[in-house]
Write a structure and sequence with these properties.
This protein is an alpha+beta fold and 265 residues long. It is built from 7 helices and 6 strands. The longest helix is centred in the last third of the chain and has 33 residues, at 170-202.
Length: 265
């Protein structure tokens, strides 16, 4: 009887311990909203997990071979990328699952090296991936206005064929419609300013900044100004060259008279 009781207690303790260990390895539910995940992730891709390999010496950290169909944020990656250190990682709040053969998902990633990106190797941001489940995922993408759609590098696929629709909600069109007129007004203002500058450069009148009126008086040559001064004064003015010429003629006559006097003597 005692032996049976001991065995029964051992089974209960073992079961309880295994349950505690299992609960300890479980991930916390990721309640972060989609917009925050996009904002705080360098790369957001749409694709599916093709294979998963557990890291040596760990039963909670694994390596994922991921096929990218569309890049929603960040630079274009290769079509086949590697996601390292996924799963339950010490120091991170949330974990990833990346189930193989379970369809498409949206992964939030960081490049393994920011200095020399190889567009192939990434590690997960501290968010769980979002598995595509139909309407709810489509609604998330439709209401997110700051995403783009890029096909992977060396891919011949069309964006419309492999990328989901993004930013199709009317709220995104409202943002575009309120932003576009501002840009158009700035372009029109620049065009008007350039047109004014061009017209001013071809006009002989120079407008000095700060002057509200410009002179309409004619601009005269120096000779014209001299004639105007003479006509206004009413006095006959002799040029300096004419005076010098008269003095030279008188001096020559005096010299000739003196020479004749000396000749007669």
């Amino acid at each position: 009887m005692f032996v049976h009781l001991t065995f029964f207690l051992f089974v209960i303790v073992s079961f309880s311990s295994s349950q505690l260990l299992t609960n300890d390895r479980q991930c916390l539910p990721d309640t972060t909203d989609f917009a925050t995940k996009v904002e705080k992730s360098s790369v957001v891709v749409y694709g599916k997990a093709m294979a998963k390999i557990m890291n040596d010496g760990s039963d909670s950290i694994f390596h994922v071979f991921y096929q990218v169909d569309c890049i929603l944020k960040g630079p274009a990656t290769l079509r086949q990328i590697n996601i390292t250190n996924a799963g339950r990682v010490q120091g991170k709040q949330y974990c990833q699952e990346f189930p193989v053969g379970r369809g498409y998902s949206i992964a939030f990633l960081e490049p393994i090296s920011s200095d020399k990106p190889d567009y192939k190797t990434f590690f997960p941001a501290d968010f769980a991936e979002i598995r595509e489940d139909g309407n709810s995922t489509s609604q998330l993408l439709a209401r997110t206005c700051n995403l783009h759609r890029i096909v992977p590098r060396q891919s011949l696929a069309s964006v419309t064929d492999v990328c989901p629709d993004v930013g199709t909600h009317p709220i995104c069109h409202e943002i575009t419609n309120t932003t576009l007129p501002t840009i158009v007004n700035q372009v029109n203002l620049t065009t008007i300013i350039l047109a004014d500058i061009k017209s001013n450069s071809s006009n002989t009148t120079i407008i000095v900044p700060g002057n509200h009126e410009h002179s309409n008086q004619a601009i005269y040559t120096p000779e014209q100004e001299i004639e105007m001064i003479r006509s206004k004064s009413g006095v006959h003015q002799v040029d300096t060259d004419e005076k010098n010429s008269a003095k030279t003629t008188t001096f020559g006559i005096y010299v000739m008279i003196i020479a004749l006097i000396f000749a007669w003597n």
